[in-house]
Design goal:
Immunoglobulin-like; 10 helices; 32 strands; elongated
Length: 618
């Protein structure tokens, strides 16, 4: 929610105020009247400006400027909007000082700052957008970030007056499992000066504190609590001030489909104005849930109860309190929406298959990705257990639905509860892949796990042998090398890998009277080859095999001029001399059913003869 339209339509039933002069009933008449006459919230920034205007009226600014008040307020609004546009987003990465958070993304820019033209909108947006990152680890943490005062943060001139704004902010974050607390303390100082005389016409200091607490995971009854407290203090050069403490408590109800069905709400406002005070309490408010949070435009007060106590100007206090209720309900909706996205995408409920050490991933983007691939025999039955876990609490008592994409069958396709056992039956053909999606949906949230079964492809076993000779300017090098049989095994993403135990012996002769020869050997290591199975030119399967130099290594022993050397630096890296010979072959193409492939290379005095023998074990 940036600056999109948000409408507040308050449904008020036919209620009766309590008798005997008291002001506690379903809703007192004056409160019911204030609710029905409240202006719709069609834009959060505008609503915040209008609420500020009410408070500025109360401290005497409208009386001070008379007919020019609207122009002054418009200039103040413009300066305030520009000031908060310049405020940087908090870096929750640097604010949370635990290992798990610090090793996360190097910088988190939560939203485009140009949309944040008010303190409450800035708070609510960063709160909502930060929930994913702040719960992206199982760790807990506490931190803070202070933004230095921007002086001036903005300056606006309408040709008659100039408004200068200074802004300072402080953010606080606390994460305890699924419970996230975000707090913003902000101070805005606005000075209005006369363009001709340069004298100060008025100054206003506005201090606000917003604190939000939410548990992103529904409890065992499907409840999701969200609490927001607001403190406002305005001082002015008129000598008048206002203060307000407000609390909005929301309690979401999640249904068995993990959707937000409804939200209960209570609201309190305790404000002191120059013309009087108000202490207001409302309960049994409700909001309809949606697929994206709740519908903030439909606050239902038909069953509401409430009390209100006022001193002085009752109208001013009620007007402010009711406008603050409408603003708060709409403002904080994206936080509930963000939480709903998390509990419906694996942040709370976890489906696990312990046999494969596989479980629901934490990241939203990975919910549909395969977490484990298991190779199975043709026509085989593979049985695995399914359990449910919760990232932060007791495991849910919930069903698990299973769906199969591919061949052959899955039994059962539904578990009434976990733990349970499932059997996958593989098809009779080689090379088939099937994907099993396990989903648990309940009032605790949605957990999803995707695993894959690959019907066993024909495994390739390969060995290599060969010799090489190099001669130039009286220097000769002859070598014989061998890589014993290794079997290619799947490593994921359609790739296979084999390790061949390798040995090499070689002799070097050089011109010289006292030292004319050297010899050496390699062994106690492996050559690692990577392979992929692809369709050849005639659509018959072939293997493409290539040395993996980074994974290959052998130990070396050498003797020259009566001196012996072992494992000289880098001598065995990449598979040593035998690895160099294997890499000369580059990509070796082997028939799908195996065969013998010979590679002969002549390069500037170097002759290499290699033989690769591949078989497919039965």
């Amino acid at each position: 929610m940036h600056r999109g339209a948000l409408a507040l339509v308050i449904a008020v039933g036919t209620l009766t105020a309590c008798s005997s002069g008291g002001k506690t009933a379903q809703l007192p008449a004056e409160l019911r009247s204030a609710l029905t006459s409240a202006s719709p919230v069609t834009n959060v920034v505008t609503a915040d400006d209008q609420e500020t205007h009410v408070l500025l009226d109360d401290v005497g600014l409208r009386a001070k400027f008379g007919g020019e008040a609207d122009a002054v307020y418009a200039l103040l609004d413009k300066a305030r909007g520009q000031a908060f546009e310049t405020e940087p987003a908090p870096s929750f990465t640097s604010a949370i000082h635990t290992k798990a958070f610090v090793t996360g993304p190097p910088e988190v820019r939560l939203v485009d700052d140009t949309f944040l033209q008010s303190m409450p909108l800035q708070f609510a947006t960063h709160f909502a957008e930060g929930l994913d990152f702040l719960t992206s680890s199982s760790e807990s943490g506490t931190g803070s970030e202070d933004e230095p005062e921007h002086n001036p943060a903005s300056k606006q001139d309408d040709g008659v007056r100039t408004v200068t704004d200074n802004v300072s902010e402080s953010w606080g974050i606390d994460v305890a499992g699924s419970r996230v607390t975000v707090a913003l303390g902000a101070k805005l100082t606005e000075t209005v000066t006369d363009d001709k005389t340069h004298s100060v016409l008025v100054w206003v200091t506005e201090s606000r504190t917003y604190k939000g607490v939410i548990d992103i995971c529904p409890d065992t009854a499907g409840g999701v609590p969200l609490n927001v407290t607001t403190q406002i203090l305005i001082d002015t050069s008129t000598g008048k001030s206002v203060s307000s403490d407000a609390t909005l408590d929301l309690h979401g109800h999640v249904n068995d489909q993990a959707g937000l069905s409804s939200v209960d709400a209570t609201y309190e406002n305790h404000s002191k104005l120059p013309a009087g005070s108000i202490d207001l309490s409302m309960g049994n408010l409700s909001l309809p849930g949606t697929a994206n949070g709740y519908d903030g435009s439909s606050l239902n007060t038909s069953s509401a109860t409430g009390s209100v106590n006022t001193t002085g100007d009752e109208t001013a206090g009620l007007k402010f309190a009711v406008s603050d209720l409408g603003l708060s309900v709409n403002l904080i909706e994206p936080v509930m929406e963000a939480a709903q996205k998390l509990w419906r995408n694996g942040r709370c409920v976890v489906v696990a298959v312990p046999k494969y050490n596989a479980e629901t991933p934490r990241k939203i983007a990975e919910q549909g990705s395969v977490q484990h691939t298991e190779e199975v025999d043709t026509n085989s039955d593979t049985t695995f257990g399914v359990t449910l876990k919760h990232r932060y609490g007791a495991p849910p008592q919930a069903p698990v639905d299973l769906s199969l994409s591919g061949e052959d069958k899955l039994d059962p396709e539904h578990l009434d509860a976990a733990p349970g056992t499932v059997t996958y039956t593989a098809p009779s053909d080689d090379g088939k892949t099937a994907t099993v999606t396990l989903t648990s949906t309940s009032k605790r949230g949605i957990g999803k796990l995707v695993i894959e079964f690959d019907t066993k492809s024909k495994k390739l076993a390969m060995s290599m042998s060969g010799n090489m000779r190099f001669g130039s300017n009286g220097i000769t090098l002859t070598a014989q090398f061998q890589g014993s049989t290794g079997v290619f095994k799947p490593v994921g993403d359609g790739k296979y890998r084999a390790s061949l135990p390798a040995i090499t012996s070689y002799t070097i002769t050089v011109p010289g009277e006292n030292c004319s020869s050297a010899n050496g050997n390699e062994g106690r290591g492996t050559l690692v080859f990577d392979g992929t199975r692809v369709d050849g030119p005639d659509n018959k399967p072939v293997w493409h095999v290539q040395l993996d130099e980074k994974r290959s290594f052998v130990h070396t022993n050498e003797s020259a001029c009566g001196i012996s050397f072992s494992d000289l630096p880098l001598s065995g890296a990449g598979g040593g001399l035998v690895g160099s010979m294997a890499s000369i072959a580059h990509v070796v193409t082997i028939p799908g059913d195996g065969g013998t492939v010979r590679v002969n290379k002549n390069i500037a005095g170097l002759t290499v003869n290699e033989t690769f023998v591949a078989t497919v074990p039965k």
